[in-house]
Amino acid sequence: MPVLLQQCRNVSFLQDSDLLSKGGYVVQQTQLWWSLKFLHERFQDKGDTRAFYKWLQFFLHGVRETKCLSHANDDEWIHCRKAQQSDSELQETVARSVAILAFLGFCLRDSRTKAVIDLCKLWIPKICGRALWGSTAASDLHAENMITMTVQTNGHVTGLGAALVAKHATIAQVWKSEWQTMLQAGDLTGPLDDNDSVSLADLFRFVFTVQRQRRAAHRHIWPSSSASGIVLAAMQVAVVKFLGEMVDKYVFEIYMQENDTQQVVPASNRRRSRGSDDEAEAVAKRPKVSMSPDSIWEVVSTARESGLSGREALQFLQKLDRLCNAAGCHPNSMDAWMRRLQSIYDSRATIAFAGTSHINLIADASRHSNKEVLVTAAWSWENQTAAMCNCQVILPLDQLAPNEIDLTDLVETLAKELLTK
What we know:
This protein is of the alpha+beta class. The chain is 46% helix and 12% strand. The protein has 2 domains: 5-258, no CATH class; 264-352, no CATH class.
C-alpha cells in the first residue's frame, strides 16, 4: 500500500545528527518513515557523485541484495515519489528504519568507496547506542533456526557462542577465528571468547564485513548454501530487524517526548553532476538549495502575518534558528513561489465563479491602496462568493513603448497624458 498524505505527520530530528535522517514522517502514529534525500546528502559528502535518482536505484539494489527484507513487499519498506502518482500519496521518497540499516550493511559489505565504508563503520555504534538508549530490561535477539540470544542494556549480546555451537561446533570455531582476525586488524573492539559476550555494534560490523575480509585475504567466501553462510544470513536479518525495531522505539518513546520535532526541516543541497573544470561551467554547476514545502510555507505565512514582502520575510527568517537552514536561498526564489501560489489562487477563483453571468467589482482607494496600486475585489451574488483580483503594479517610468503594458484604451490614453506632461 502506498503512503497516503493524509495519514502522515511531518517530523524533524535536528537535535540528533546520529539518527538515520534529518526529517521524516509518522504514519498513523505507529510507523516511522525517514526522508532519503538527507541520507543521500550524507553519502554525497563522502564522495558519492550519483544524482538522487541514480543513488535511489543503488539504494534499492543494496537493500534487495542483503535479502534482509526478502519476506516483505517493496512498498512495506520504501515509498518512492513518482512523476505520475495520485495527489493523495506522499510526494517524497521515504524508507523504513530496517531498509536504511540493511543498506548500511550492504555498503559495509560491497561498497568500493573507502569514505563510505568508514562512514558506516563509525555510524553503526552510534545507531546502536540510540537503539538501546533508556532500555531498562534485556531484549531477545531472534535468528532463524537458532537459539535465542539476549541483548543487554549495556549493548552487549550474550548467548552468541552457545547459539553457534548449537548449530555446529565447527561453525563456532570458524566464527571465532574470523572474529580474532578482524579484531587484530582493528575492525572490531572486543573478542568473541568464552565469556560469550560481544557488543551489538561489533556483531553488526562482523556479519556484514566478514565476507569482504575473506575476499581481501584471497580466501573463498562462505557460500549461501553452506552451514556458515546460512547462519551468517540469519544473523544479518536478525540484527537488522532488531536494530530497526529498537530505533523506532527510541524515536517514539524518548526522542519525540524530549525534543521539538515540529521544527521546519532544513533545505536540501542538491549537487549537480560533475563535468568540465571550465570556470563558467563550474559556476553553473554549484549546489542548488531545495527547500521543503513546509519551509516555503513558513516564509509565505510570515510575510502575510507581518506585512513584509516575501523577499523581506526570507531575509528575516534566515537570521533565526527556526529557519536557519534556509540560508543559501536567494530572495529571488520568492518570486517563483509567489507566482505558483498566485496560479493556484487564480485556478480556484476561476472555479468559484464558474457559471456566473454577473460579477461586481469593488475598489476603495481610500482604504486599501496607494499611489501605484488599486486593490479590487470581485463578488458574485449568484454563487455567493468573492475573490481578490490580480493587481497590476505600474511603477513610475519616463517612457512607455507600444504594447509594453497590457492596458485598456482609456488607461493607455491617461498614461500617455501623464508621461507627456
